[in-house]
């Protein structure tokens, strides 16, 4: 019976992956829809506007080229580092995220013709006395993971003797400097200029270094048709004025002045009430996605955990070995590592795409399921062994003795752990933002990237988590009372 249940779970997961892959291939083949990764926040190239819609030079340029060349794009704002990893694993077809064309990157990626000039600069807080690289010795510098600007800074690290800390998005990197935790950060010139002109409290203290260009990237030797379409569309847009129109939409001085004025005049939108009113729909969508992930994850984890937990208590050394090994592996792996391995590692090995949402469910099922298996096994083993021996001596089979005598007692021991695991799963969904799932935490990052109200937004999100967890705790206490009454 346990063997059939285990085979059923594995079959369902395999069928889901095969169906998803066939569906992705069908969509790409028939409608020429390409999955394009981009950053979460990198204004003026990509950012969420006040309506929480993604805009920017990269976004508009990609859409305009797709329209010009007759194909469709599914743009996925998953963060620069995640986008690069997803491209390498075959989860997406291309990356447009203010990606500087470098010799190192050319070894792994094929780039389009350049579409924007850039250079790397160092910035410090407005009230800082630091004016040169020499003053960084012994101090901490903030960098953004995987960027060319970060690589440039690392090449100077030994020479100037500074320490580094890395962040996955620009906003957290900027805030680390503004708040005084780091004394400087390195960024691409046009991005930093836009950020400062629209209100970020930093200043540029070095001239642009290693001037280069941004390009659209695909994996080396793959998606060449898409790359040619991008180049052809870019050439057409430059010729008909569409390119200049897109760029001026975001870096024209009048546009920047209007954006800065809008930020200064939107004080009411930066209060707790104002933030809730402006982003209520987005907060609720993020909360719903979190709850949905939690429910599906806990269902998968419960089934997986019960099967593995039972394997650990049946009188069979091989089954017990499987249970112990599975629990050891998936409890030992950090959830973040497991999520990246499933979303990026497996596709790079098998060539089969796994949608982020499916990868998230599998991650929760395996990780939370291992913990569930441990307390299922522990709950059963907590029942006095003499009861099983007595039942067997009366002629009951192992299965009947387990069903009639052991499980009713073991379940009472397990129920609090089940509800507690539900709460843990709810909190663990926040880690899945690393693979681009737009749950509550990722929603918060996007909102903060626009209004820079980190304290207030995280306070709102923290309160939302606490409310849901409080309700679950009440349910847990109620169930415990009912079970013990």
Automatic annotation (TrEMBL):
Signal peptide (UniProt feature, chain positions): 1-29
Transmembrane segments annotated in the record for this chain: 291-314, 326-346, 457-479
A Gene Ontology cellular-component term: ATP-binding cassette (ABC) transporter complex
Domain ABC transmembrane type-1, chain residue ranges per copy: 287-476
Topology within the bilayer: Multi-pass membrane protein
SMART domains xrefs: PBPb, PBPe
Cell compartments where the protein resides: Cell membrane
Principal location: membrane
PROSITE patterns, per the entry: ABC_TM1
Record has Transmembrane helix as a keyword: yes
Pfam families referenced in this protein's UniProt entry, alphabetically: BPD_transp_1, SBP_bac_3
CDD domains: PBP2_GlnP, TM_PBP2
UniProt GO molecular function: ligand-gated monoatomic ion channel activity
InterPro entries: AA_ABC_transptr_permease_3TM (IPR010065), ArtM/GltK/GlnP/TcyL/YhdX-like (IPR043429), Iontro_rcpt_C (IPR001320), MetI-like (IPR000515), MetI-like_sf (IPR035906), Solute-binding_3/MltF_N (IPR001638)
BP GO terms, sorted: amino acid transport
Keyword terms, alphabetized: Cell membrane, Membrane, Signal, Transmembrane, Transmembrane helix, Transport
UniProt record similarity statement: Belongs to the binding-protein-dependent transport system permease family.
Name of this protein: Glutamine-binding protein / Glutamine transport system permease protein
Species in which this protein is naturally found: Ligilactobacillus salivarius (strain UCC118) (Lactobacillus salivarius)
Lineage: Bacteria, Bacillati, Bacillota, Bacilli, Lactobacillales
Gene this protein is translated from: glnP
């Amino acid at each position: 019976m346990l063997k059939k249940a285990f085979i059923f779970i594995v079959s369902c997961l395999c069928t889901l992956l095969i169906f998803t892959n066939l569906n992705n291939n069908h969509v790409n083949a028939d409608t020429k829809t390409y999955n394009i990764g981009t950053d979460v926040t990198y204004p003026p190239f990509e950012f969420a506007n006040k309506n929480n819609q993604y805009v920017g030079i990269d976004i508009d340029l990609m859409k305009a080229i797709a329209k010009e060349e007759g194909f469709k794009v599914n743009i996925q704002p998953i963060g620069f580092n995640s986008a690069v990893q997803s491209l390498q694993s075959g989860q997406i077809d291309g990356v447009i995220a203010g990606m500087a064309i470098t010799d190192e990157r050319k070894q792994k990626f094929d780039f389009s013709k350049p579409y924007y000039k850039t250079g790397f600069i160092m910035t410090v807080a407005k009230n800082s006395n630091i004016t040169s690289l020499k003053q960084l010795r012994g101090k901490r510098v903030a960098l953004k993971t995987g960027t060319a600007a970060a690589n440039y800074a690392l090449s100077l690290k030994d020479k100037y003797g500074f320490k580094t800390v890395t962040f996955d998005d620009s906003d957290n990197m900027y805030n680390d400097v503004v708040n005084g935790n780091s004394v400087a950060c390195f960024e691409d010139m046009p991005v930093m200029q836009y950020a400062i002109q629209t209100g970020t409290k930093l200043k540029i203290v070095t001239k642009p270094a290693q001037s280069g260009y941004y390009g659209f990237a695909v994996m080396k030797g793959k998606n060449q048709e898409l790359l040619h379409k991008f180049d052809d569309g870019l050439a057409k847009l430059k010729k008909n004025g569409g390119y200049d129109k897109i760029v001026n939409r975001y870096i024209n001085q009048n546009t920047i002045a209007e954006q800065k004025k809008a930020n200064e005049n939107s004080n009411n939108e930066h209060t707790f009430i104002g933030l809730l009113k402006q982003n209520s729909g987005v907060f609720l969508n993020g909360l719903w996605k979190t709850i949905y992930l939690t429910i599906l994850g806990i269902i998968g984890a419960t089934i997986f955990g019960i099967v593995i937990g039972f394997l650990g208590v049946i009188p069979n050394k091989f089954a017990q070995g499987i249970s112990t090994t599975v629990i050891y592996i998936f409890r030992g792996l950090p959830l973040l590592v497991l999520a990246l391995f499933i979303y990026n590692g497996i596709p790079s090995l098998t060539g089969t795409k796994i949608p982020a949402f499916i990868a998230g469910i599998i991650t929760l099922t395996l990780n939370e399921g291992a913990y569930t298996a441990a307390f299922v096994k522990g709950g059963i083993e907590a029942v006095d062994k003499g009861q099983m021996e007595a039942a067997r001596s009366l002629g009951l089979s192992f299965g009947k003795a387990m069903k009639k005598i052991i499980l009713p007692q073991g379940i009472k021991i397990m129920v609090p752990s089940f509800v507690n695991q539900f709460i843990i799963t709810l909190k663990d969904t926040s880690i899945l933002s690393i693979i681009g799932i737009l749950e509550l935490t990722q929603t918060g990052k996007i909102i903060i990237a626009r209004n820079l109200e980190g304290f207030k937004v995280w306070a709102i999100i923290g309160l939302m988590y606490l409310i849901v967890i409080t309700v679950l705790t009440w349910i847990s206490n109620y169930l415990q009372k009912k079970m013990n009454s």
